[in-house]
Specification:
The chain is mainly β. The chain has two domains: 76-173, Nuclear Transport Factor 2, Chain: A; 318-742, Beta-galactosidase, Chain A, domain 5 (Distorted Sandwich). It is built from eleven helices and 33 strands. The strands form five sheets. It has a 20-stranded antiparallel beta sheet that branches. Residues 1-75 have low confidence and may be disordered.
Length: 746
Amino acid sequence: MESTSFIRFLFLILAAVVLLLFTRSWIHLPSPAADELDLLDCNRFSSWCTSKNRIQTKQTTPSSSSSTTRSASSSSAAVRDHSDDVPRHPLDPLTLREISAARSILLSQPPFSSSPSSVIFHTLTLSEPDKSSVEAWSKGSPLPARRASVVARFKGESYALTVDLASGALTTLPIPASGFPTMTIEDMSSSTWAPLSDAAFNSTVLARGVRLSDVACLPISPGWYGEKEEGRRLIKVQCYSAEGTANFYMRPIEGLTVLLDMDTKEVVSISEQGRGIPIPKSAGTEYRYEAVAGFNDDPPRLGLKPISIEQPAGPSFEVEEGGHMVRWAGWEFHLKADARAGVVVSRVRARDPDTGEWRGVMHKGFVSELFVPYMDPTDAWYFKTYMDAGEYGFGLQAMPLVPLNDCPRNAHYMDGVFAAADGRPYVRENMVCIFERYAGDIAWRHSESPITGMDIREARPKVTLMARMAASVANYDYIIDWEFQTDGLIRVKVGLSGILMVKGTPFSHLNQFPQNEDMYGTILSENVIGVIHDHYITFHLDLDVDGANNSFVKVKMAREDANPGESPRTSYIKATRQVAKTEKDAQIKMKLYEPSEFHVINPSKTTRVGNPVGYKVVPAATAASLLDHDDPPQRRGAFTNNQIWVTPYNESEEWAGGLFVYQSKGEDTLAVWSERDRAIENRDIVLWYTLGFHHIPCQEDYPIMPTVSASFDLKPVNFFESNPILSAPPNFEKDLPVCVAAAASA
């Protein structure tokens, strides 16, 4: 007995040493500089206490003569000091000091004051004022009351509250019947190393030929598959070998799944279904420039020469100094980072070119939820049905953008200010960029034929304004672009890149697979399968076209038969307008051979010739879920059952998958809300649009994917009296810079 105890003691010591090496070599938790933590100290959540994440290095104070607006060239990607930030607009995010104040207020009041160290903050963000207050506010007026929205866990219970920052009052809000709040970064990072304290796990890894020092693990949300998973926060952990490559995702320890209690870090069970499946090779998996720069010298690389857009006179857009209001070419909008949504665009207004009036287009737009189901029902894969916003925090996963590559030289950057799990604030720098884009596109043109005798050649360049963020949700990278065009159109684009989630296989060639065995994907390299999966990104679009009360109109196009004898034609297309009365009238499934347009109009405002003013949603490439509606993942992701939904505005209905998505049953989703079939005609309404991708992986996706994109447009339809860019000037040679390559000028 004594020798057994001694061996166990030695094993625990070994596990502790391995754990220390693992956390330092893979997670990389740098220590903070002491002098940068004077405002906010860091004790429990050290992974957030880095000099770049917590408090930014103070910059030289601008001179008093500086402008109240700043452009891309003046801000660049420089580190910004947020310690003295103050809100300037009702929708501005909470500042560092406001987050600290909200934390202090909450921890000082019961029940939290009884054990402040037991409080875990899952959300601490601005509780936005009601729409009427925001609409009524004007620059220079006092801001509406500042409140914080908090979702926290305390001694195993979840709480949703608002904190009045002026009075210190707490208001408790109802919470959903099932599910848990969004994971914190601490939840995720601590879950990845917890299995290393389990002897059975370590033995299994070693038996698969992987050194413990090479293990890299991922936290995987488990979804919901029955009552046995209820009552506690669970997470599944799967691991990889990082030996010989930074791209450990391509080297899965296939079939090894750890079920973990996320609160206690207790290993509940270990499933090992991958014995006999080798760890895929590391050769050819690297993607870092320094690792691949000389890899393809023969044949030669692309041979592209550097390209950049230069703006000697400066950019045309302005960002309010220290604020979030953006103005450009007849557009005005509020832009901010958000821990759950990623980036939020609000108070979007367009200037009428005829009257100069600022007219409302959209009160608020953002990514409400993402649903990513993998199409493999086997033991190690069936639960991989991610909801990246509600489970992981889409904004929490946003990494700093890479200047000159994620965003061009002329970009302006915005930081995100978030709260860590202990409620203390930190800064995610360079999370959003704004820049003008010119890709040689044409805004409008016409050349007259010589037969008319008129020598007319008119063309206008298309310059647009981009607001961009990118989230790296473990292996996958999402690029979200809001593109504003001078003609009143807003294009919303989603790009997918990053690294596939792959499956190990004993086979190294397609001809080795048994004919009747489902691969669930494509073989990409020796012993590597890219599993088929979908991506659905659901947008919350609170359109307020020339006012809050709008209607949704389905404009159906159908063949109409011509009356015999009236025309040589036998058919034509007729458009019929149908105004949706209730929510179910506005539930839209796209059908290629039953085309429609989808308008949001203001029925009380018309153009001079009588058309109601409006905007329309113009879908591009998209996809629809093919899963059974009773499949547990699809019940939770039922907001993807339609591509378009329209609901009456309700401030509590922002997240399509529900407030608490993690381990939820799907009882608090957009699909459930819409079952009430509420009235939506001439009301304050919200349009929800789901953009989808089916992804059957191919070898070109290995080892890292070229970006694939899809988009939709919000396009004016009878909003203006005529072409709003009719008077846009062309480019003239004398106005453009002449750039000389540095080598040529030497």
